[in-house]
Sequence to fold (113 residues):
Amino acid sequence: MIIFLMEERTIFHRIRDREVPADIVFEDAEVLAFRDILPKARTHILFIPKYFVASLTDITPETAHLPGLLILKAQQFAKEKSLTGYKLLFHVGKAGGQEVFYLHLHFLSDQEF
Ligand code: AMP
Fold:
């Protein structure tokens, strides 16, 4: 018997692969950022790595650079948009409020761009 182990595709896979629309505000070879569909602040952006990792709990030595990469891109984005104050947040696990199991960094600011 052949068993295919398929990765579960989340809504963020589908946004990354342009299968569903999103309000994309930043993209490069490694990271994509788009507006949260239910914003919890005036500016609420989600930063995801193009390389799939489900959650911060799944980070290994091989993928340990990814959370830092998201933070770096968020910092560059803030500078470009003249956003001087913001909050960065990872929800980790169901009990930590994570609903979408594709690693993402929330960028929240009361400033608008
Ligand atoms: P979390 O609770 O950390 O998993 O956050 C998931 C976030 O994804 C929530 O803030 C949702 O509002 C947001 N979200 C879910 N679906 C979409 C979508 N299609 N486009 C943009 N943001 C979404």
